[in-house]
Amino acid sequence: CRQVSKAAAKAEVEFDYDGPSMKTTVPGPRSQVIEQLNKNVAAVNFFCNYEESRGNYLVDVDGNRMLDVYTQISSIPIGYNHPALLKLVTNPNNMSAFVNRPALGILPPENFPDKLTESLLSVAPSGMSRVQTMACGSCSNENAYKAMFITYRNKERGYSAPSVEDNTSCMINQAPGCPDLSILSFMGAFHGRTLGCLATTHSKAIHKLDVPSFDWPIAPFPTLQYPLEEFVRENAQEEARCLEETEDLIVKWRQKGKPVAGIVIEPIQAEGGDNHASADFFIKLRKIATKHGCAFHVDEVQTGGGSTGKFWAHEHWGMDDPADIVSFSKKLLTGGFYHKDELQPYRIFNTWMGDPSKNLFLCEVLNVIRKENLLDEVARSGKALLNGLYALQVQYPGLLSRARGQGTFCAIDVCDDATRDKILVRTRDKGILLGGCGQQSIRFRPSLVFKEYHVHFFLNVFNDVLAEFK
Amino acid sequence: CRQVSKAAAKAEVEFDYDGPSMKTTVPGPRSQVIEQLNKNVAAVNFFCNYEESRGNYLVDVDGNRMLDVYTQISSIPIGYNHPALLKLVTNPNNMSAFVNRPALGILPPENFPDKLTESLLSVAPSGMSRVQTMACGSCSNENAYKAMFITYRNKERGYSAPSVEDNTSCMINQAPGCPDLSILSFMGAFHGRTLGCLATTHSKAIHKLDVPSFDWPIAPFPTLQYPLEEFVRENAQEEARCLEETEDLIVKWRQKGKPVAGIVIEPIQAEGGDNHASADFFIKLRKIATKHGCAFHVDEVQTGGGSTGKFWAHEHWGMDDPADIVSFSKKLLTGGFYHKDELQPYRIFNTWMGDPSKNLFLCEVLNVIRKENLLDEVARSGKALLNGLYALQVQYPGLLSRARGQGTFCAIDVCDDATRDKILVRTRDKGILLGGCGQQSIRFRPSLVFKEYHVHFFLNVFNDVLAEFK
Question: Which CDD domains match (chains A, B) (predicted)?
């Protein structure tokens, strides 16, 4: 780093800076000039110097170096410019994977099956040995929904060939070929912004406004009261209410002639405000899906990849048969979904179907996670973070509440959204990047190399900022 | 190349092999073994050795080297392992772009605006100076549709803020927040396979079957009779009929309470069978869109990038104001869409919004296209190809018909689909890769470095194959 030669020297060994270094408020003058010159970049926070960014620290074009506890909306698994990933790019054996992007569904590279085994299949969720890669999170969920629809109709047809009427009516978007099937989703959910995904997203109006949608059932997601140990009975009742209403909706939509082919849910509603539910809730929900012949799709786009302390958040439920489909993207670097054998994917297709160069990176990321025991680190850092948040909400009772989390996948509520937004800006100007979610929450989404000492550093700065708002 | 040291030596200079070299039928034994071992790869043609592939030649794992006239479903712009692209990967200045994928909508790299100017904006369609990158073709069209819906409703609201009812109803997928708007598409069209795109795709039943859809209007696309010069009057009548029905559908859907917010069309229907229409048809259609307040979206995902002899196929229409939105992917290496200033994209967002490393490649591709005058080459090769196809359909009148094309973006019909498929396999075993499209067409989709001598070589082999089917 040009500005901090000492830190750079240290980073040679540890591949991380030793702290933030702020030159200006953010966005700084240089970021602002670049933005003013451009009409093709709309919602930019600031411009980044990714060459100088390293480990947990994101450097901007004004030379500000910030501890990144948001990591590109939770999509940087092992920090910036990790040496293992840089090495991969410079390896001449990998050049061809970057330069020749194949139509993966028909003409895969020779090593693709091995690389799948080494990467995605080595972390396959319980009960699943098949995976389909995709280019992004939205495409992953869109195609997962299609797999559920196709499976549902295949069963209805008794696995026989589609009728002439099926084949002709579908060409003009009509039933029975394009059947009136539905996906059940939950209020507060976020599953992406393409038209199919958006019909199951219910986090913010601005995401959905003005876009045509489907008449699909939307169940309530439990609103838990915190601290959990004080509201055991109330929360159990709340979860029971939501499960009951879910089952009612499945029956109602079947009666309406729009049967529920699948249920989609996040293990923790992220964009919608870091809303948690108990393992018991998910276990019972999975049983309801099975009972009513609905496929059960767990969307791990934001929760997957290790930040809850397990590789998949749904592993915390402790089930052998947690889902029929698990979708992913973000920290996995490639989109895609795992599925059970029954959900035959032979009709899921597009030109690229992912990008094999991303699988190469994922192999290295998984190697680093294993070699450095990063899931244990996350559990340790997460415990320190959540305990720190508990302490802060006691210290600032009018300001903070509902500290919650799994691993470092944590959040806390602020008294109102305006104050939340001010706290985010003040914290950023002190060299720490955080993100908001839901109405008035702050979400913590560090990478997996976020250590206990990063937690303590963050808590100190956060404490200083909160004191200003007391 | 291990097998052909002489050819490899030549390729040092010309970066291309001097012809196919077949060791086995395709898929060869090694491809078959790899496929049998794997249940995660479904519709594979064969496995590839991308390291050994070069220029116009794709090499498979059995050492077969094939002249590629299909190029990964038309997505390889300047051949395999082009030296300019290899150099880019080995440039240390670019490493960070591969390793640190940003959330481009909020935290772009410093050079992103410049790279956009140098790449996508340097080839912006007439009347457009804004572009939004996306990860793939389907996402590009999905988000283009959203931009059209948002623009339509913004106009309806008189650009005032949405009502409370808008904001609450959209959260549960209901009007007025999620309005009953539609996109008009054409029979035979292909715009992608996610749920929004799929509602405008009408090429093959197997793409659409079992997936819920929208009640959106579908207009007839002209079915031209060939040779064009013999059916001038009939084809003009056919186009007039289609335009009239399009206008009727717009009125009808408005009356149904599902106004058409946008019209989407390919300049040449590719997947649907390489269906062409005249410039006059498109000019009149664009006027109908403007007259009825529908945005006009030209989908150049397959036609864009130079293979018609112009960078965009719609340039053949000769209009100053050809469209409101132009989407792209495939040969552009990144997905995305251009749009006019009026279609404000501030609400189009997702985590990745493309991949800046793909823009770096695109800069180099455009440099090569300019430096080597590849659009002129395409026009030259295309002329030779189309003339050759004309000659062959005269020679094999019972077998071939309807030779058609622009640049190298050519196609020809075979008497029936079974014969078409057999011809594709035979041609492949003789070292040339082609693709099918529509009911009984063969489509030609070489890269931009496909020269006249490649055309002549192809025509000779194709002639030999056709003679077997006479």
Answer: OAT_like
As a dihedral over the C-alpha atoms of residue B390, residue B392, residue B397, residue B398, rounded to 10 degrees, the angle is -130
Q: What is the DSSP string of A373-390?
A: THHHHHHHHHHHHHHHHH
| Distance (Å, whole) CA A175 – CA A184 | 20
Least confident among A326-330, A339-343, A344-348, B317-321: A344-348
* 8 Å CB contact between A171 and B201: no
Q: From the candidates A39, A40, A131, which should be mutated to test the interface with B, based on the most B CB atoms within 10 A?
A: A40
> Does pLDDT of A11 surpass 50?
no
CB contact under 8 A, B100 and A47: no
Give chain B positions within 8 Å (CB) of A145: 195
∠ CA B451-B47-B452, rounded to 5°: 5
B243 and chain A in contact, CB less than 8 A: no
Q: Residue A34 and residue B214: Cβ atoms within 8 Å?
A: no
How does the average pLDDT of chain A come out, rounded? 94
Mutation choice for A interface testing from B195, B332, B360, B447 by most A CBs within 10 A:
B195
Residue of B nearest to A59 (CA): B109
Q: Are A466 and A400 in contact (CB under 8 A)?
A: yes
Is the distance from CB of A147 to CB of A157 less than 8 angstroms? no
pTM over 0.80: yes
Task: Please state which of the ranges A56-60, A63-67, A68-72, B1-5 shows the lowest mean pLDDT.
Answer: B1-5
Other CB atoms within a 10 A radius of the CB of residue A93 amount to 10
Phi, psi dihedral angles at A130 (to 5 degrees): -120, 145
pLDDT band at A38 (very low <50, low <70, confident <90, very high): confident
Q: Does A331 touch chain B (CB under 8 A)?
A: no
Give B105's contacts in chain A (Cβ within 8 Å).
42-44
The question of whether A256 is a catalytic residue gets the answer no
**What are the CA-CA distances from residue B86 to residues B52, B91, B330, B423 (Å)?**
13, 9, 19, 35
Q: Chain A neighbours among B 116-175 (CB < 8 Å)?
A: 116, 121, 129-132, 135-139, 142-143, 145-146, 149-150, 152-154, 162, 166-168, 170-174
Cite the active site residues of B. Answer: 190, 299, 330, 351
Return the pLDDT at A344. 73
Angle between helices A137-156 and B137-156 (to 10 degrees): 100
Q: Which of A181, A211, A216 to mutate to test the interface with B (most CBs of B within 10 A)?
A: A211
C-alpha distance from residue A361 to each of A311, B392, B402 (Å): 17, 48, 47
DSSP track, B35-49: HHT-SS--S-S--B-
Question: Helix, strand or coil for residue A68?
Answer: strand
Task: Calculate what percentage of chain A has a pLDDT beyond 90.
Answer: 91
The strand pairing partners of B451, in sequence order, are: none
Sheet of B130-134: strands edge to edge? B130-134, B335-339, B325-328, B295-299, B260-265, B182-186, B218-219
**Confidence class of residue A35 from pLDDT cuts 50, 70 and 90?**
confident
Whether A201 is catalytic is: no
Q: How far apart are CA A67 and CA A59, in angstroms?
A: 9
Residue type present at position B237: Q
How far is it, in rounded angstroms, from Cα B106 to Cα A262? 33
ipTM score of the complex? 0.95
Is residue A148 within 8 Å of residue A323, measured between CB atoms?
A: no
A–B CB contacts, 8 A cutoff, strictly below = 353
- Amino acid in position A241: R
Q: Would you say A311 and A322 are in contact if contact means Cβ atoms under 8 Å apart?
A: no
Comparing CB atoms, the residue among A53, A112, A357 nearest residue B100 is A53
Cβ pair A146:B195 closer than 8 A: yes
- Is A368 an 8 Å CB contact of chain B? no
